Amino acid sequence: MILTIGSSRSRSNKQQTAFTLIELILVMALLMIVLAVSAPSLQGFFKGRNLDSEARRLLSLTKYGQSRAVSEGIPMLLWVDWKQKSYGLRAAAGFVEPDDKAVEFTLDKDLKIETENRVLQPGTVSQNDRIIGNLPTIRFLPDGSISETSPYTIKLSQGQKDALWIGQSTNRLRYEIQKVHYERLQP
Fold this sequence. Notes:
This protein has 187 residues and is an alpha+beta fold.
């Protein structure tokens, strides 16, 4: 008795199926047309995501700075350099030298960052809040509060229309993302 292994059809009965070169070219042409039509709308999507993610990163840094000030019992400074398009967090000078936990971030080339102080003129800082030149800083105190001289809002913008503000909450205990900039009354 002989056992047959495999298919009972003979190999000559099988037909080979494949795509022709013309079919492949047509599919590629259709894909290119779809990509060309959808690219402008996708560009706007990614542009908005960039601004939103940067605002969330800055907001996270404010929460981290406040938490670190309370847990370590030392003032923390979140500085903003609008000329270099960067910002960072470090311990106040004289408390921890060097600060091993200091962080610095650089903005994407399309983004801008600005600060607005509540008490002082926009872009200025008090003498005791300077850490690098004349940069505005948010000063988180060891009790978890925010210094009076800290910027009231930080504006992140991309282009002429897109902007988000990181502003102090109404109780002045933390910062929050604000989609619309509200004019605050000066004290």
